[in-house]
Amino acid sequence: MIRFWRTALLILRKDVTIEVKSREVLYTTLFFAVSAILIFSFGLVKEGQAPPDAAAAILWIAIAFAGTLALGRTFERERYGETLRALLLAPGPRPALYVGKLLGMLALLGIAELLLVPLIAFLFQAALISRPLLLFALLAGGTTGFCAVGTLFAAMLVRVRSRDVLLPIVLYPITIPVIIAGVRGTAALLAAPPDEATAVMWIGILLAFDTVFVTLSLWTFEPLMIE
Amino acid sequence: MTDDFDCVALTDVSRHFGRRRALSHVTLSARAGEIVGLLGPNGAGKSTLIAVLATLMAPTTGEVRYGDLTYSVARGFRRSSLVRQRIGLLAHEPHLYPELSARQNLEFFARLYGLDPRTTVEPALEAAGLRDRADDEVSGFSRGMRQRLALERALLHGPRLVLLDEPFTGLDDRAVVRVSDRLRHLSGSRAIVVLATHDLELADGLVTHVAVLQQGRLVSDEPASRGLREKYRSFMSRT
Predict the structure, then answer these.
(1) Residues 77 to 96 of A: which have CB under 8 A from any B CB?
(2) pLDDT in tens, A118-159
(3) Domains in chain A: how many in total?
């Protein structure tokens, strides 16, 4: 178990070192997410009023689209120089490679969400931060479920020529329940008064999704990655 | 049962991609101290064989034995991490991160193999002849420098089985001599070296055993002798 986490953290540390040097994935992801939110705000907000629940939907659309972009880029790094093969050949447990990449994606989307939540709260006049712990739980649960499946698919598609097209096609049908749970839970928090019981119910559902997705991904990663 | 081994053996190994047979009933073995030259035209199955030996590709049928440990579809490979600890692979691509420096690359892979970077990285940089460029990003390196670094990365953990897929591609004469000398040294230190190459002149005098693949089949497996190019040409014209 120690070796597993040591390997996962090594992969995470390596990705962070490369990202700090290149800032390629972080800047692309943030630029894309902020642009999407600005476009939605110009289109939907009239006289300072946004349609009900729009903020919740747009937050999760931005997370899903920016996450898809980041997922593709994070494994592109392992394609160049075929470093993925070197990682698979290393003696550590192969699912640790998946966990390291998953942690990197969670950190990246976590940073994006730190920017997106106040931006959406401001542009859509949404009380997103009124229940910070519940919002954090919703974001953590939804992001984990989305990234758990996305990291597995991005790894599987790394050698496929049309991976940029295929990733959203295979990813969205499976992660739609996670996005819906995130949207409904966030919308419950934005209701007046906030519906905490409904938000907690959606958090529970997200945790169930996360458990299933992470377990299945850990179980299938090695057989799927061996050619 | 031990995690080290002094012999690797493929028994009746086949690997299919759909209807295409990349390897077909290959039986081959190599012992410590041998340099096995894998020869054959493009698409003969050399890279597939290297990937199977590296545990990066599962054989469709047959089994691969690393000493006491067996890898097959039927039995699976529960202790593959023990074998992977003893395998070093240098393939077409360098398996290096271009955004990281030579030192950072070696440190990362040393840690990945549970080694202490303080004792392993400097000798590897020395062996690659890259001490003065250790902190430069790999993206600025020439093909030869990358290949030398990639070789040292592959050998960082002192592997028993060294798999090389076209290691001489794009190297200048000096680098070729350097890599060849390194392979002889590995053979002298009882490593099992499997070298897939098209360069018969380089293989001549370097390899101790020659295995020829054609369309996924092993068509020749014999001890090496001088005049490899002529023998290979005459062999391929007959088959």
Answers:
(1) 77, 80-83, 85-93
(2) 999 999 888 888 889 999 999 999 999 999 999 999 988 888
(3) 1
